[in-house]
Design brief:
The chain is mostly helical. It folds into three domains: about 230 residues, no CATH class; about 160 residues; about 90 residues, Copper Amine Oxidase, Chain A, domain 1. Helices cover about 75% and strands about 5% of the residues. It is built from 15 helices and four strands. It has a four-stranded antiparallel β-sheet.
């Protein structure tokens, strides 16, 4: 025999064989932790393929979408703050410019008033000039008349002097004639040339005076002498009684028959004089107004010059303030030279333009990302139905496998119960065999004591008679048990290590797929609920703003129904068909009584807005306005919840 006490330890070959056997045993019969670890690695390796197979986009997860939305919101807030600062600066400059414009408008208004006053003064000045010219014409007429009459009277006086040469030597008569001129000069010194007197002098024509008529000396010597001493009392008589009749040496002129004709002329000239007086008063008022306008014109010209100077100063201040603001904005005061300032200003402007373009690009990128996210949401909605179908198929497969497992478990339980029954029967058979053996031994002992009856076998042999052979029964039961075990082993093939492991892997894989599908289903359900909530909110806002309920009946065909919120009946609705990718929208005529009634009701508006102007939105707006106007005022005031407010941003 081999003595183990003399062994110092296992050999190298045995250790190698032991390690190899251990490795093979672990490969065939791995531990549960190693199996789970391998499953995790396999799951991580198969996850992208499964996601790709199921057309599942990781970017559709709420966390990823929320992160993108937060990033976009942060960028938008930064841009909004910068835009708000720029807008505030622009508003402040606009306010300042508006104040200056108001002051400029006020100065322009004053300038306009001054120009109006200037025009008024010019008008008054022109009236004054016209009045002066009129008076000048009158005096020219008077001068022409009296100059002509003076020459006529002088020539007549010379002729009278030649005819009466002897009488001129009488100093008394000569003194009397000379006294007339001196008295008349005294009369002119005391008399004032009023307007009436001037009009009276200017009245009539030059031909109205033909000189002094002298009768024949033999018949009317006295009248000729008196006629030679008489002056023209028609045109040169004063306006008062004392002016019409003035004396020479206390004597009065005698009237002749010619004075009656002159009285008629005087009456006619007085009538003309009254008319001319009225015209003169009108011209005088106009001339006074023209003088006033002229004075105001001069004052307004002075004020205009001062206002123009102030306006120039204001524009200079505005330009200076603008330059100051430019220096403050672009920070170019530290530059030593104007050229450097100009270059710095250009660089600053270019920098601002580049930054503005960059911000615009960022905003466009954010807008495009938001648009892409909207498209991804729409694609996710389209994938919802497919994923739900896949999920339902996987669930049905899982339920089928679970039912099969339950059936197999039930069969296993049934076979186990049958095995237990067979084992119990086998034990009973063994007990019976033992009992029969005990009985046989007892019978052998009793045979020695009792004398057995004689038999054909002799005295040494005894025969035990049984209905069936116990050994045959035991063999039959054993055969049945083996058959049942064989059938049970065939049914319970999963109890083998390899089959059990394969089945467990399949079950784990199915459970993993089920869990992944459940997670995907939760994500899809969350996104679907979010989209549904957003769609409901958007629909409520559209109804509140437009007063129209729009329902999409067939998304693929683009068929939708439109019903006004103010429509009393729920059957009154229009059916439209939208052509995706174009601006074309067609109204469908549905063969129903309600549709025909709606078309008859709104046929005038349809002809006006859809037929003539080709505008369905205008038709819907006109329909909404008409329905709202047809409602009762109390009802609209009771139901209306719309408010109006103005938001002022600080």
């Amino acid at each position: 025999m081999f003595d183990s006490s003399d062994d110092e330890g296992p050999s190298d070959i045995s250790m190698i064989h032991a390690a190899q056997a251990t490795r093979e045993f672990k490969e065939k019969f791995p531990l549960k932790s190693e199996t789970l670890k391998k499953q995790e690695l396999e799951r991580a390796r198969r996850t992208p393929a499964v996601r790709k197979k199921l057309n599942f986009d990781v970017t559709m997860s709420p966390s990823f979408v929320e992160a993108e939305i937060k990033t976009v919101q942060a960028n938008s807030e930064i841009l909004e703050r910068k835009l708000t600062m720029k807008n505030e600066e622009i508003e402040r400059l606009k306010t300042f410019i508006q104040k200056k414009e108001e002051e400029n408008n006020r100065l322009n208004f004053q300038k306009t008033q001054a120009e109006e006053e200037l025009r008024r003064e010019k008008y008054q000045n022109n009236a004054k000039i016209a009045r002066t010219n009129l008076e000048l014409e009158k005096w020219q007429t008077i001068g022409k008349k009296f100059y002509t009459w003076f020459n006529i009277a002088k020539s007549q006086l010379e002729e009278v002097q030649e005819l009466n040469g002897d009488d001129w030597e009488n100093p008394e008569k000569i003194e009397k004639i000379n006294q007339i001129s001196r008295e008349f000069y005294k009369f002119l010194e005391n008399n004032q040339f009023t307007e009436d007197f001037v009009d009276q002098l200017a009245a009539g024509s030059i031909q109205s005076y033909c000189g002094v008529e002298f009768p024949v000396r033999q018949n009317m010597k006295t009248e000729c002498v008196r006629g030679s001493e008489q002056l023209n009392s028609t045109e040169l008589k004063p306006p008062g009684n004392e002016r019409y009749n003035y004396f020479d040496r206390g004597g009065r002129y005698n009237r002749t028959s010619i004075d009656y004709e002159k009285d008629e002329k005087i009456q006619r000239l007085l009538l003309e004089n009254s008319v001319l007086k009225d015209n003169l008063k009108i011209v005088k008022g106009r001339s006074e107004r023209s003088m006033i306008i002229e004075e105001r014109n001069r004052s307004l010209e002075v004020e205009k010059d001062s206002l123009q100077n102030r306006l120039d100063q204001t524009f200079g201040e505005i330009e200076a303030m603008r330059m100051g603001q430019a220096r403050q904005i672009f920070n170019i005061d530290n530059c030593p030279e104007n050229s450097e300032k100009y270059l710095r200003l250009i660089d600053r402007i270019n920098g601002l333009l580049i930054e503005n373009k960059r911000l615009e690009k960022d905003f466009e990128a954010a807008t495009s990302r938001i648009t892409k996210m909207d498209q991804d949401l729409k694609n996710a909605e389209r994938r919802n139905s497919h994923l739900e179908d896949v999920y339902s198929n996987q669930v049905s497969k899982f339920n089928t496998l679970q039912k099969e497992m339950e059936d197999v478990q039930a069969k296993y339980d049934t076979s186990l119960e049958n095995f237990e029954e067979v084992a119990a029967k086998l034990k009973e058979a063994e007990k019976k065999i033992e009992e029969s053996s005990v009985i046989s031994t007892k019978s052998d002992g009793d045979s020695t004591l009792l004398a057995a009856p004689p038999t054909d076998a002799g005295n040494s042999t005894q025969i035990f008679h049984m209905a069936s052979n116990p050994l045959n029964l035991a063999h039959a039961e054993f055969q049945d048990q083996e058959t049942k075990k064989r059938k049970l082993s065939e049914l319970d093939g999963a109890e083998d290590s390899e089959a059990k492991r394969i089945r467990q892997e399949k079950i784990d894989e199915l459970e993993e797929q089920l869990q992944m599908l459940e997670r995907e289903k939760n994500v899809i359900e969350d996104s679907y609920k979010l989209h549904k909530d957003l769609a409901n909110k958007f629909r409520q806002i559209c109804i509140a703003l437009t007063g129209l309920q729009i329902k999409l009946k067939d998304a693929e065909e683009g068929i939708c129904t439109v019903q006004s919120e103010y429509e009393e009946t729920n059957q009154g609705q229009f059916v439209f068909k939208c052509f995706y990718g174009t601006t074309r929208i067609d109204m469908l005529d549905v063969n129903s009584d309600s549709s025909a009634e709606m078309i008859r009701k709104w046929e005038p508006l349809m002809k006006k807005y859809i037929g003539e102007r080709n505008s369905i939105p205008a038709f819907l707006a006109a329909m909404t306005l008409q329905l709202e106007q047809e409602r009762e005022f109390d009802e609209t005031m009771h139901e209306r919840t719309h408010t109006f407010s103005v938001y002022h941003e600080d």
